[in-house]
Structures are given as structure tokens and as C-alpha cells.
């Protein structure tokens, strides 16, 4: 059984979409990654920080999904990271209304001793210094280090971010971020440039238009499943990442062919995440539903063609 260590935010989100809005609900990159990875047979742990206002029921939920929460620091007199956002009608763009770092502002991650030998390290979207600190705490280099980041860190901490990129095997970012980081409009050229920064593999997420996996001269594309309803896209990218690393940790195979399978598993789980607000859909997801939708992905992408 593979070991997966997840570093990222465990947080409160308040979300507004054209279909409704919520008060504070469970969110955070590490939460979505962890819930997605919990669909696989593996050992997993989350390294994060929350305040005394974070409900025990949420911690119990993660624990009951088989996630080791000993690396989640609780600051009794502090408040949990909070993000509030409003999505536009196309659901592809959003406005951030509130970002309260709270206890995250002074986050000093501590990797549990039994996960310092993790096979896969998933660096969720956080300050690059925090990500770097976690890499430095590992007793042996993980077989695979996967990095997720965003344009905020490119704007404000680019030198530190480039240092983390140099140490990673896989980088996952969206198309807009890939273009910003590399100054290349072509995603093929952008991926080539990211390869030169360190990562052997580059995953460029294109939201409802699927995801691209690049390795040297090889390219693989996974579509997003066409859905009748998209309710809330919050956490879809993190859920994709959780499915991707969860599958790789379970199979303990990091060949390009297996990374292709991991992209499909990530896309499959992300298609569930968007069906309800926040983590609601991922909390109740069954193995049977996951397998049934994987079969839909297979039908969507398989075809026979005769070449003359």
C-alpha cells in the first residue's frame, strides 16, 4: 500500500453561484485532495492548520475517510482560514470577496514522523516557503513530488516558487497560469518551458475542456465529462489532483502510461465534485458511482478507426 502525504489548506469557504449560495462550509485544497484520494487503497495524511473554531465533526469526517490528521495543527485561540467567492454566470470566472488568512499566516508545517517516508508528496496550493519546508522535512525523497500552485504566487513570490518547481516531478496548473508563468500562449511551448524548470511531467488543466499531460515529446489529453448540470466548480482542480495522486499512490507505478490513467481518474472524480456545493458530493461518493462514471469516460474516449 502506497503512502501519500498532502500539504495544503483545510478551511472554511462561503460560495455564491448562479444556483444559490452557502454560509461557511468545509473547504480548502487539502480537504478536496484528501477526500478524492480516499477513494483509493492507500495510507494518506494531511499537513495543515486550523483554528479553535474548526468543528470536530469536520476533523472526524477526514479521519473516518482513513486520512491521518495528526499533521493538522489546531490553534485553540485562532481562527481558520476563510475564503468567500462569487462565480459569474459562465462558472469559469469568479470574484474573490474575502480572504482571511487567519492562522494560515503563521503556518509552520510539521510532517508526522510516520509520513516522512511517503511515496507521493502532494504540495497543494500554498506559499512556496511552506511547500519547500515540507520537502526539506522528508527523510527520503518521495518517488513523486507533485506541485499545484496559482497566479498569486507567480505575482508575489516567483523566486521561491521557481525553487519549489525545480524540486518537483509533476506540476499541475491551469492554462491561464501556464501562460503567465512561461509567457508562452501555446500550451505545448509552455509545457516545454516548464520542463526546463525541473518537472518531468506537466499537467495543464482546462476546466470543462479537460486536461493535458506532457512528458518530453509525448502528449496525452483527457476530456472532461459533459455534465447536464455544473453546480459549483470550487475545489474541482484540487479534486482532480487528489484523484491523480491517489491513483498513483495506490498503483505505485509512475510510468507515463500510468500517469495517463491517473489523469483519467482525476478527471472522473472532479466531475462529481462540481455537482454540489463545496465538499458535499465528495463526502457521500460511493465506489460504485466512481466505477460507473469511469465506464462513461471509457465510452467517451474509445473509438475504432481504420487507417489507409
What report would you give on this structure?
- This protein is of the alpha/beta class and 308 residues long.
- Helices cover 38% and strands 24% of the residues.
- It is built from 11 helices and 15 strands.
- The strands form 2 sheets. Strands 1, 5, 6, 7, 10, 11, 12, 13, 14 and 15 form a 10-stranded mixed sheet that branches.
- A hairpin with a 6-residue loop joins strand 8 and strand 9.
- The longest helix has 18 residues, at 256-273.
- The mean pLDDT is 95.
Pick out the low-confidence regions. Answer: none
Gyration radius over CA: 18 Å
Q: Into which percent range does the helicity of residues fall?
A: 25-40%
Distance between the termini: 45 Å
Task: Give the percentage of residues in beta strands.
Answer: 15-25%
Helices and strands: which structural class?
alpha/beta
User: Quick one: biggest sheet?
Assistant: 10 strands, mixed
Number of strands: 15
Number of helices: 11
Mean pLDDT: 95
| Tertiary shape | globular
**SSE pattern, N- to C-terminal:** EEEEHEHEEEEEHEHHEHHEEEHHHH
Amino acid at each position: 500500500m502506497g503512502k501519500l502525504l498532502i500539504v495544503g489548506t483545510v478551511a472554511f469557504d462561503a460560495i455564491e453561484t448562479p444556483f444559490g449560495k452557502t454560509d461557511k462550509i468545509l473547504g480548502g485544497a487539502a480537504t478536496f485532495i484528501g477526500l478524492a484520494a480516499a477513494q483509493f487503497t492507500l495510507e494518506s495524511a494531511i499537513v495543515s492548520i486550523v483554528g479553535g473554531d474548526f468543528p470536530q465533526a469536520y476533523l472526524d469526517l477526514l479521519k473516518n475517510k482513513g486520512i491521518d490528521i495528526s499533521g493538522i495543527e489546531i490553534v485553540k485561540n485562532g481562527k481558520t482560514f476563510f475564503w468567500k467567492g462569487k462565480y459569474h454566470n459562465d462558472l469559469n470566472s469568479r470574484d474573490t470577496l474575502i480572504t482571511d488568512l487567519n492562522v494560515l499566516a503563521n503556518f509552520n508545517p510539521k510532517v508526522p514522523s510516520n509520513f516522512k517516508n511517503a511515496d507521493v508528496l502532494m504540495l497543494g496550493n500554498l506559499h512556496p516557503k511552506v511547500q519547500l519546508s515540507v520537502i526539506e522535512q522528508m527523510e527520503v525523497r518521495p518517488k513523486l513530488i507533485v506541485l499545484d500552485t496559482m497566479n498569486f504566487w507567480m505575482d508575489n513570490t516567483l523566486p521561491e516558487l521557481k525553487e519549489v518547481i525545480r524540486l518537483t516531478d509533476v506540476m499541475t496548473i491551469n492554462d491561464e497560469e501556464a501562460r503567465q508563468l512561461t509567457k508562452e500562449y501555446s500550451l505545448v511551448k509552455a509545457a516545454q518551458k516548464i520542463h526546463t524548470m525541473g518537472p518531468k511531467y506537466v499537467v495543464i488543466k482546462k476546466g470543462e475542456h479537460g486536461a493535458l499531460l506532457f512528458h518530453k515529446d509525448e502528449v496525452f489529453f483527457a476530456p472532461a465529462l459533459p455534465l447536464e448540470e455544473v453546480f459549483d466548480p470550487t475545489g474541482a482542480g484540487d479534486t482532480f489532483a487528489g484523484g491523480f495522486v491517489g491513483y498513483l499512490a495506490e498503483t505505485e507505478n509512475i510510468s507515463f502510461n500510468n500517469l495517463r490513467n491517473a489523469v483519467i481518474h482525476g478527471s472522473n472524480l472532479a466531475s462529481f465534485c462540481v455537482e454540489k456545493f463545496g465538499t458535499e458530493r465528495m463526502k457521500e461518493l460511493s465506489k460504485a458511482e466512481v466505477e460507473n462514471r469511469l465506464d462513461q469516460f471509457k465510452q467517451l474516449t474509445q473509438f475504432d478507426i481504420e487507417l489507409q
